[in-house]
Design goal:
Layout (H helix, E strand, L loop, with lengths): L6 E10 L2 E11 L4 E5 L6 H8 L7 E6 L2 E3 L4 H6 L2 E4 L11 H5 L6 E2 L6 E2 L1 H14 L17 H14 L4 E5 L7 H16 L3 E6 L2 H7 L2 E6 L2 E7 L5 H9 L5 H14 L3
Parallel strand pairs: 3-10, 3-11, 6-9, 9-10
Antiparallel strand pairs: 1-2, 1-4, 4-5, 7-8, 11-12
Helix pairs in contact: 5-6
Length: 267
Amino acid sequence: MMSIPILSLQNVSKSFGPIDVLHNINLDLRAGEVLCLLGDNGAGKSTVIRLLSGVHQPSSGAIMMDGQPVNFASPRAASDHGIATVHQFGGTFPLMSIGRSFFVGVEPTKGWGPFKVYDRKSANTIAVDAVQRLGITRITDGDRLVGGLSGGERQSLAIARAVHFGARVLILDEPTAALGVKQATHVLRIVNEAKRRGLAVIFITHQVMHAMAVGDHFAVLIRGAIAADFRKGEKSREEITDLMAGGETMATLEAEIEGYSAKIQPA
């Protein structure tokens, strides 16, 4: 008997005015699993991310957590439910130190009352330890600027932050897209480590090989609809690639959305 999904989309559709972007999406995500959401540019992956991270709300259907309906009215609401989204470049701050970036918005302090100050030493120690426990041993100095890190290390820092602050669902938006082979391999190892720790991971990508390296469950989006939903080992790399290539991009649709949005903006 399978466990109750930690996160589900049930018949979720999304429209912007008269323009339908997602059509009856059904997806289940379980703890300790990686769901790879595949699709070409414009397939609808970004809209799914925005729904799950509270940027948009479904036009119809339901989002469920632990079998109960939830309403992510804002990104803060999604975060409060344990959903963390890491975007392509890690969402980090290049001119901040590693420790400061790790705790941005929730900085540890020392002192009392009006004499409280930022506890740089504690922040640096915790941030470096969190990253190293995910296997990125090159980061040893919390005062180092984030801008000096590689793309893979920035992704690692963002993922380590999400894990440290108790994320239950980790959404990774094209985390290997701009990385070389070695850096991408580091990120894929961290994805596997997050899965080993029991997190549910949504891995959004158009790179089939990276998906196959970490995925347990796969869904292919074409023109805003699920074209295929299958488990690891059920389809070959060639079959998955053919599925993805069968979908036309939504460039025209996205242009229509932009035009519609411009019309409804207040003057």
